[in-house]
């Protein structure tokens, strides 16, 4: 079976680890990154189901922050993902902690710096050596969901429709409908789980009803957008959820003639940042890390990057703007775009 997936060794390693440890991993806490996206939600769900139903491990899946994007909320609701809000007491109750689609050293999760993780399965470039009993970091798998989908396929065990649907959605969102899939086994994995999916549920998740606030923020993002060379920038100000920052950054990147999009949003005292590039070979994370004062507060993979840092809930508008302007200036320098050239506002009425 493993010959069908030329890069399925990581899934096999995960299977062997779970099979060896089994009940000794119980209880197991599964932790996704803050404000989890579809890939994190699907990966956590897959590990939860695999551990609980195949290895009889007492398991709980948690997340920090909120689930803001309408598609992600629909995904959790329709697929009945067993998700709970993270509480500090969870760290005391669970001896074993698994991190999915994130790593202990990243600043996008509440995992304590002085603790060793049990399991880490991720696709992002490590900031430093990963401290865990079991580690899989595959930077070319396209989506962390690919590793878990291959584990189910290699085991040959039943995959419920709602789990298969979650994994399929996690794969297509992180690979831009397979456009960013660098390996043949990514596409094969997606096609192999597709027959198990609930296609009606998948369509509903991809086309959710949106709040009026979403459209007002989108309007603001477009009106505030400014262009210098092939870079488009938009500061959203205060947002109802951080997911809007990446969502609008994705949307602005589709503007004709644009190669990079950069978007910021203020949320609960933090400035959230999203950076996107058209060229899939661009190392967006490296560019954004050089823009941030603390590189560890930014990350990503391929042409997608994001991050956040504290500004302060009581910070003045001047202080917020100072940080936003500083990021843009450093980004211009990083992209070799002259700051002497003025930004234009292509979507404002003259």
Structural class label: alpha/beta
CATH topology annotation of the largest domain: inorganic pyrophosphatase (n-terminal core)
Helix content: 25-40%
| Tally of helical segments | 12
Count of structural domains: 2
CATH superfamily of the largest domain: inorganic pyrophosphatase (n-terminal core)
- State the CATH class of the largest domain: Alpha Beta
CATH architecture of the largest domain: Alpha-Beta Complex
Structural features, described:
This protein has helices at 9-21, 38-54, 70-78, 88-93, 144-155, 161-174, 184-193, 199-206, 212-224, 243-252, 284-291, 317-334, and strands at residues 28-31, 59-63, 83-85, 96-100, 117-122, 132-137, 226-228, 231-238, 260-267, 270-277, 298-301, 304-310. It is α/β, with parallel strands linked by helices and 350 residues long. A 6-stranded parallel β-sheet has the order 3-2-1-4-5-6, with helices on one face. It has a 6-stranded mixed β-sheet with strand order 7-8-9-10-12-11, sandwiched between helices. The longest helix has 18 residues, at 317-334. The radius of gyration is 20 Å and the shape is globular. The relative contact order is 0.11.
């Amino acid at each position: 079976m493993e010959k069908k997936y030329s890069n399925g060794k990581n899934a096999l390693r995960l299977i062997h680890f779970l099979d060896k440890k089994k009940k000794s991993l119980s209880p197991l806490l599964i932790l996704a990154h803050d404000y989890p996206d579809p890939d994190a939600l699907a990966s956590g769900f897959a590990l939860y189901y695999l551990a609980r139903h195949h290895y009889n491990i007492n398991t709980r899946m948690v997340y920090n922050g909120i689930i803001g994007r309408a598609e992600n909320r629909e995904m959790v609701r329709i697929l009945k993902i067993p998700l709970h809000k993270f509480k500090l007491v969870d760290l005391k109750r669970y001896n074993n902690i698994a991190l999915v689609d994130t790593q202990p050293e990243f600043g996008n999760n509440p995992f304590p710096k002085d603790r060793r993780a049990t399991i880490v399965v991720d696709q992002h470039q490590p900031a430093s050596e990963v401290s865990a009993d079991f580690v899989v970091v595959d930077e070319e798998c396209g989506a962390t969901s690919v590793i878990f989908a291959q584990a189910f396929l290699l085991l040959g065990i039943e995959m419920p429709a709602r789990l298969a649907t979650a994994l399929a959605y996690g794969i297509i969102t992180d690979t831009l409908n397979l456009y960013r899939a660098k390996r043949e086994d990514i596409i094969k994995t997606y096609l192999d789980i597709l027959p198990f999916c609930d296609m009606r549920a998948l369509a509903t998740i991809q086309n959710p009803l949106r709040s009026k606030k979403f459209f007002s923020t989108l309007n603001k993002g477009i009106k505030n957008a400014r262009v210098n060379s092939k870079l488009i920038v938009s500061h959203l100000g205060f947002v109802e959820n951080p997911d809007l920052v990446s969502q609008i950054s994705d949307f602005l990147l589709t503007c004709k003639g644009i190669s990079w999009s950069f978007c910021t949003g203020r949320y609960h005292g933090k400035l959230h940042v999203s950076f996107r590039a058209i060229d899939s070979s661009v190392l967006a994370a490296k560019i954004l890390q050089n823009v941030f004062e603390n590189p560890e507060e930014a990350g990503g993979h391929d042409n997608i990057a994001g991050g956040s840092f504290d500004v302060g809930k009581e910070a003045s508008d001047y202080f917020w703007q100072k940080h936003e302007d500083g990021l843009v200036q450093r980004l211009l320098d990083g992209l070799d775009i002259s700051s002497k050239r003025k930004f234009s506002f292509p979507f404002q009425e003259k």
